[in-house]
Write a structure and sequence with these properties.
Length: 496
């Protein structure tokens, strides 16, 4: 085509026909899409705040691509089929009414369906010009020059780790559908901390869309001003923030990956450290320190299950230490499983007890609290036997939980997180425990095995006040207390 109309002008002409003006942020998006296409960039990510009109612009972009080449094949994928059909219907209306695309409308009605259509084109191709697919649909055998992923990440596709894995696996099928040199365009907003749209490493993994050219348009710019003041004045923005809550506003309007479910447990309120335990003996006394802090107590909690690989509840053991100043250190956390190949040598329970013994030895633990609910009631004797066999001095304390699990977790975590008194070792941050914290909502079914174990440790630890002397407070003297020897001058009448 000689001298084709650039995409911004294509959209401006459409807006004039509709009697609309073009907002400034729409022009920015149009220029970015036009520049990326003409510059040969074929992996794109468009993130813009909710109700910004991004899907409308992407529909116009699809119509423009067909205007440039009527033989082009476009597939639209969305979280559900109805949303994908909505995009296809939008493009159909544009083709019917836009003065530059009216010639593309076919004469045969069967080529003009609601979920797919084929424009007037010179070539006879098997695939339609535009096709709608839900993310769960079978796309094997399809071919496309352009794949639009419009809001494929929504709560129903990303609110748990298995769903996120399934979403990524389905999106990777696009590589077998798109032709060499084809365009992939993702459009959406993040709905989870572990979003596919993230641009930073998560759990030591590269971002899902590594290498994609990104355009990010939050509602507020760097100066805190609205990007669309006509539609979103300051008063409306505050109302939205108040109604939807901080996390949802940050996710949907500011495009920051957070947990949209407003979980009670925020792992970002925990500190992180890398130091190892330091054990020493002086004057026939043992001491344990961590990160320069002297440790005064430790608690260990085992929330047992059979530890079947990849199914059922996890068997989790955790260790928390307390220092002299009342700080909590989550130093050890282990998800234990038995090895089915070793069942001829040792049963499931014995294998787990041996792993607990190793954990106790590594962490210098004086006792283990074992939750005896369910399978736990058979384990205390086995664990004592394994400790005795390996010569490890450690008490086994049987605990039976009667209170509601959600209440136990909240009671244990709320205060220490709010006061930022809890720190976790770097290795703990690499475990599923962090995901459990981000996604846990009270009384909603979700993974909480590690949360329960750590909550048991925190509940078993006594509350300690800092022993730092306070000699002066608002002009008043305070007596020192809390133990420890001091100097004392005694009056005597001895004549030495």
């Amino acid at each position: 085509m000689k001298n084709p109309v650039p995409f911004p002008e294509f959209v401006m002409l459409w807006d004039q026909i509709q009697g609309l003006g073009m907002p400034q942020h729409h022009l920015r998006i149009c220029r970015w899409l036009d520049g990326a296409w003409t510059g040969g960039q074929r992996e794109l990510l468009l993130m813009a705040f909710r109700n910004s009109g991004k899907s409308t612009l992407v529909g116009l972009f699809c119509a423009w691509l067909l205007y440039l080449d009527a033989d082009r094949r476009i597939m639209v994928m969305a979280a559900d089929f109805a949303l994908a059909k909505k995009m296809v219907r939008n493009v159909k209306r544009i083709i019917e009414r836009h003065p530059l695309t009216k010639r593309l409308k076919p004469k045969r009605k069967e080529q003009w369906a609601s979920d797919q259509f084929t424009v007037n084109r010179p070539s006879e191709l098997r695939d339609p010009s535009m096709l709608a697919k839900g993310i769960g649909a079978n796309i094997t055998g399809s071919r496309a020059d352009v794949v639009i992923c419009d809001d494929v990440e929504v709560p129903n596709t990303c609110d748990s780790a298995p769903k996120r894995l399934d979403l990524r696996a389905r999106l990777q099928e696009i590589d077998y559908v798109i032709v060499p040199g084809g365009l992939q365009l993702y459009v959406g907003t993040p709905h989870t901390f572990y979003t596919i749209y993230g641009d930073e490493k998560q759990d030591e993994e590269e971002p899902f869309l590594t290498g994609f050219n990104r355009f990010k348009l939050p509602l507020l710019n760097d100066n805190g001003q609205s990007q669309w003041p006509e539609r979103f004045p300051d008063s409306n923005i505050e109302a939205i923030r108040r109604r939807t809550g901080k996390n949802k506003f940050e996710s949907q309007m500011m495009l920051r990956p957070v947990n949209i479910s407003e979980s009670r447990l925020d792992p970002d309120m925990m500190g992180q450290y890398e130091a190892d335990l330091q054990y020493g003996e002086h004057n026939q006394m043992a001491s344990l320190s961590l990160n320069g802090k002297k440790l005064v107590s430790a608690s260990c909690w085992w929330d047992p299950s059979f530890g079947s690989p990849n199914k059922g509840d996890a068997s989790v053991i955790a260790a928390v230490y307390t220092d002299e100043e009342g700080g909590y250190w989550l130093h050890g956390l282990r998800y234990m499983t038995h090895d089915p190949k070793l069942l001829n040598e040792a049963d499931e329970a014995t294998q787990l007890c041996r792993q607990v013994v190793d954990f106790v030895r590594e962490c210098y633990l004086p006792s283990v609290c074992l939750e005896t609910n369910g399978v736990g009631k058979f384990l205390p004797g086995l664990l004592r036997r394994e400790l005795e066999k390996q010569g490890v001095a450690c008490a086994v304390v049987e605990k039976h939980s009667r209170s509601n699990k959600a209440q136990r977790i909240l009671a244990a975590f709320d205060v220490v997180l709010a006061s930022r008194a809890l720190k976790a070792h770097r290795q703990v941050w690499k475990t599923p425990f962090i995901t459990e914290m981000r996604e846990w909502v009270p009384n909603i079914s979700s993974r909480d095995d590690a949360l329960d174990a750590v909550a048991g440790c925190l509940s078993a630890e006594p509350v300690r006040l800092a022993r730092t002397p306070m000699s002066d407070l608002e002009g008043k003297q305070m007596k020192h207390w809390g133990g420890g020897a001091g100097n004392h001058m005694a009056a005597t009448d001895f004549d030495l």
